[in-house]
Design goal:
The chain is an alpha/beta fold. Among the domains are: 223 residues, Hexokinase, domain 1 (3-Layer(aba) Sandwich); 160 residues, ATPase, nucleotide binding domain (Nucleotidyltransferase, domain 5, 2-Layer Sandwich). It is 43% helix and 18% strand. The protein has 29 helices and 26 strands. A six-stranded mixed β-sheet has the order 1-11-10-9-12-13, with helices on both faces. A six-stranded mixed β-sheet has the order 14-24-23-22-25-26, with helices on both faces. 50% of the residues are buried. Bound molecules: 6-O-phosphono-beta-D-glucopyranose (BG6) (2 copies) and alpha-D-glucopyranose (2 copies). The site of one 6-O-phosphono-beta-D-glucopyranose (BG6) has 18 residues, from helix 6.
């Protein structure tokens, strides 16, 4: 009994002595809690440095954006090929993801060797080898006939600007292949795969092993937002808020960041904790000065650290009675698996003895205990360092989410973590101690990284397929030069039809004479009332013109016209207008004043045979009041004034908004002979030679023609370029079959075209998660101002998303990109079509005036032209391209058409007076 006790005492004593001896020798490798907290802080600072745009270039922890934005949501499916290169084993796999009832993943894999000649050879040899293995795998599994998307797990630091790209920043671990650094790994692999004509694979994604691990684990646990590898090398990734990633555009959602934490310390940040053994190991490695943190932690180096320590201790006479063996002198003779075996709970000591013997040493009992403790210290330090960096990441995640407690999951992989008997336990414990306010679940990726790589590839494949459909839809809106020239020519012939007596009744471009024949000459003066009806706003104005100085003073008030009035009876509409005039006169305090002359801007097609008569041909845009078509709107206005019997007005002129706009601009620039509206509706007027206007007597001089070009195409002449979406918009409008050109070019309809496209894409499951919301079904939600905002270049994606949210459309980041593209395609086509029409007009003017070159000014108004960020530029470019012999100046009408209406009234008054005298 006593002997047993004595023996036990002896062992304990022996153990204690040995442990103390080793502890003394390696005190520098033991890190206190304070040191770990300090390392945590340092790593946190490194992360921030890597994320900042200005600081990233000099940061050693690179914090690489991965373009993996979302964790799997269970909708992934398909069959994928996966390559897993860069860990201890090179694998080729197939991953089949299906949804039979519940998500189901089936994998088959094969390990291929990575001979030294390959990992230290040339780039082309490496990629050819990898492609050969992939081809072999595909053929042996009888998959050669299938087109397979491929996900590549490539466990080295790569710069990515998209998923299917990876510029290798540097080799790490055992790899040192010539001519690959700074090149794109995906294109090299693609090229190598193409040599195998019998296999058809498409490399859709490159992912780091940390990312693939995180995705693998996230498939089972959606809370997983960190991936850590402690294997041959060590590294971590995590989901960072886009708003913190300066290097990638967009602020919305999250993206996985591959930290490449292995490089931590390369700038000297860890010198105080690095030991002579770390330095010696680094000097003997294939990448001295690099991956200093990794070299203190990962499997490739742990065994070697132990060897260097044992060698030094032996030299100091502390082990093996100072007797070294040649194996102990040989680099790489102690491996991680040895360390793991030596630290095994029960057999550890026995294992240690055997391993040391294999190394040609003759260990005593004391030696074995000491060596085992050396292993413990080295692997403990490794776990501690990993824990500190991981704790920094967890804290960052918690702060990003503004939580006091974070519940999260970390996906884990790597041979050291998986095979070392104590490692996981130690790591978990230290992490929990360092971040007590995080509840962390550590989830081992049992199946390696291929499943995660397949998930990423599945998303990429879906995006690719979606892209194809979206591109096909957008292509319908792309017009070639031939298309545009043909539009211009057709517009020209339709205009000629409209001018000719015989063809006019059937013409789609009605070419209405306006009886406006003279331009203001600066002598106009007096006080006028003006009405401006038919654009976005209904305005009543008082315009005071002072002669000589070409100065005009205006007072105006905007009134709403409720939908029920726009589409009620004619009487109600005109009563409402007169009511607004009465309010305005009251407001200005001039109701009792003498019978003011009034100019009426009425932005609808009217047949005129004098200035103060306008028979409404038909309503356009959003108006549909009854009993107006075929009636004289001036009469209707006069009668309504009479009905009200409160004031008297002298209605002198009725004019189209294009004409008002032209006049407003001509007052400043006499070269202005054209008026263009690109607003709710679309229309043009211009000065035409009287001799060309068959409907009006006389051949002298010029008269303004209101083209009403909105009706262009109503005979089907534009059908070739009209899309199904244009047809749908037309069918859902107040005037089906009418105003087809207007419906492709003006503000009231562009948003509707966009809406129809979005509905279609949603039906195909390509937008809004396939859900057509009530809002999306609502007509008119995309007003010009929203379209304009969405397309603004200055807008970040997040803001686009916010606009869509305001419109009641719950969109993701990808949705917002697509919506913006759709808007762009639709508005671009509108501007081009409008430009082609305008080119026809300026060319006609040039020819009619018999000029080689024509300089002409176009007065323009309308919300589309004014608010849209690109419309006016594309319009100008198109006119320039299609009418190269015309120098066209575009002049924005700042004051609206009310001023022009007053001027026309003034001119009419002047001519009238002249006639009377
Ligand atoms: C494997 C993954 O399980 O672990 C690889 O599939 C990863 O992608 C590897 O690189 C890391 O561990 P090790 O020990 O093989 O480097
Ligand atoms: C205004 C004019 O500025 O623009 C109106 O005063 C015109 O007469 C209108 O109808 C056209 O633009 P929108 O976008 O309001 O239809
Ligand atoms: C190295 C690589 C890194 C990889 C890690 C684990 O640190 O640089 O990309 O994730 O090893 O394999
Ligand atoms: C519609 C009208 C037209 C008007 C244009 C711009 O096309 O028919 O008269 O000029 O809209 O407001």
């Amino acid at each position: 009994m006593f002997a047993v006790h004595l023996l036990a005492f002896y062992f304990t004593k022996l153990k204690e002595d040995q442990i103390k001896k080793v502890d003394r020798f390696l005190y520098h490798l033991r890190l206190s809690d304070d040191t770990l907290l300090d390392i945590m802080t340092r790593f946190r600072a490194e992360m921030e440095k890597g994320l900042g745009k200005d600081t990233n270039p000099t940061a050693c922890v690179k914090m690489l954006p991965t373009f993996v934005r979302a964790i799997p949501d269970g909708s992934e499916k398909g069959e994928f090929l996966a390559l897993d290169l860069g860990g201890s084993k090179f694998r080729v796999l197939t991953v089949r993801v299906s949804e039979e009832g519940k998500p189901n993943v089936h994998m088959e894999s094969q390990i291929y060797p990575t001979p030294k000649e390959i990992i230290h050879g040339s780039g082309s040899e490496l990629f050819d080898y990898v492609a050969d293995c992939a081809a072999d795998f595909v053929k042996t599994r009888d998959l050669a006939h299938k087109k397979l998307p491929l996900g590549l797990t490539f466990s080295f630091p790569c710069q990515q600007s998209k998923l299917e790209e990876g510029i290798l920043l540097s080799w790490t671990k055992k790899f040192k292949v010539r001519g690959v650094q700074d090149t794109d790994v995906v294109s090299s692999l693609t090229r190598a795969l193409r040599r195998h004509q019998d296999v058809d694979v498409d490399v859709l994604a490159l992912v780091n092993d940390t990312v693939a691990t995180m995705m693998t684990c996230a498939y089972d646990d959606p809370r997983c937002e960190v991936g850590v590898i402690i294997g041959t090398g060590t590294n971590a990734c995590y989901m960072e808020d886009m708003s913190n990633i300066d290097l990638v555009e967009g602020d919305e959602g999250r993206m996985a960041i591959n930290t490449e934490w292995g490089a931590f310390g390369e700038d000297g940040a860890l010198e105080d904790i690095r030991t002579e053994f770390d330095r010696e190991l680094d000097l003997g490695s294939i990448n001295p000065g690099k991956q200093l943190f990794e070299k203190m932690i990962s499997g490739l180096y742990i065994g070697e650290l132990v060897r260097l320590i044992l060698l030094k201790m032996t030299k100091a006479g502390l082990l093996f009675q100072g007797e070294k063996s040649s194996a102990l002198h040989t680099k790489g003779k102690i491996e991680t698996r040895h360390v793991a075996l030596m630290e095994k709970y029960k057999e550890g000591l026995q294992n240690t003895r055997e391993i040391l013997r294999e190394l040609g040493l003759e260990p005593s009992e004391e030696d074995c205990v000491a060596v085992q403790h050396v292993c413990t210290i080295v692997s403990f330090r490794s776990a501690n360092l990993c824990a500190a960096a991981l704790a920094a990441i967890l804290n960052r995640l918690r702060e990003n989410r503004r939580l006091t407690r974070l519940r999260t999951t970390v996906g884990m992989d790597g041979t050291l973590y998986k095979t070392h008997p104590q490692y996981p336990k130690r790591l978990h414990k230290v992490v929990r101690k360092l971040v007590p306010n995080c509840d962390v679940r550590f989830l081992l990726s049992e199946s390696g990284s291929a499943k995660g790589a397949a998930m990423v590839t599945a998303v990429a494949a879906r995006v690719q397929a979606q892209r194809k459909v979206i591109d096909e839809v957008l292509a319908l809106f792309q017009l070639t030069r031939e298309h545009l020239v043909s539009v211009k020519n057709k517009m020209r012939s339709e205009m000629e039809y409209g001018l000719k007596k015989e063809t006019q009744p059937l013409a789609t471009v009605k070419m209405l004479p306006t009886y406006v024949c003279a331009m203001p000459d600066g002598t106009e003066k007096g006080k006028y009332l003006a009405l401006d009806l038919g654009g976005t706003n209904f305005r009543v104005l008082l315009v005071k013109i002072r002669s000589g100085r070409r100065s005009v003073r205006m007072y105006n008030k905007i009134f709403a016209i409720p939908l029920e009035i726009m589409q009620g009876t004619g009487e109600e509409l005109f009563d409402h207008i007169v009511q607004c005039i009465a309010d305005f006169l009251d407001y200005m305090g001039i109701k009792g004043a003498s019978k003011l002359p009034l100019g009426f801007t009425f932005s609808f097609p009217c047949k005129q045979n004098c200035l103060d008569k306008g028979i409404l041909v038909e309503w356009t845009k959003g108006f549909k009041a009854t009993d107006c078509e075929g009636e004289d709107v001036v009469d209707m206005l006069r009668e309504a004034i009479k009905r009200r019997n409160e004031f008297e007005l002298d209605v002198v002129a009725v004019l189209n908004d294009t004409v008002g706009t032209m006049m407003t601009c001509a007052y400043e620039d006499p070269a202005c002979e054209i008026g263009l509206i690109a607003g709710t509706g679309s229309n043009v007027c211009y000065m035409e030679e009287m001799r060309n206007i068959e409907l009006v007597e006389g051949d002298e001089g010029i008269m303004c023609i209101n083209t009403e070009w909105g009706g262009f195409g109503d005979n089907g002449c534009l059908d070739e370029i009209r899309t199904q979406y244009d047809v749908e918009v037309d069918e859902g409008s107040l005037n089906p079959g009418k105003q087809r050109y207007e419906k492709m070019t003006s503000g009231m309809y562009l948003g509707e075209i966009v809406r129809q496209i979005l509905i279609d894409l949603t039906k195909h499951g390509l937008l809004f998660r396939g859900q057509i919301s009530e809002r999306l079904r609502t007509r008119g939600i995309f007003e010009t101002k929203f379209l304009s905002q969405i397309e603004s270049d200055r807008l970040a994606l997040l803001q686009v998303r916010r606009i869509l949210q305001q419109l009641g459309l719950d969109s993701t980041c990808e949705d917002s990109i697509v919506v913006k593209e759709v808007c762009g395609a639709v508005s671009r086509r509108a501007a081009q079509l409008c430009g082609a029409g305008l080119a026809a007009i300026v060319e006609k003017r040039r020819e009619d005036r018999g000029l080689e070159r024509l300089a002409i000014t176009v007065g323009v108004d309308g919300t589309l032209y004014k608010l849209h960020p690109h419309f006016s530029r594309i319009l100008r470019e198109t006119v320039h391209a299609l009418a190269p012999r015309c120098d066209v100046t575009f002049m924005l009408s700042e004051d609206g058409s009310g001023k022009g209406a007053a001027l026309i009234t003034a001119v009419a008054k002047r001519l009238h007076l002249k006639k009377d005298h």
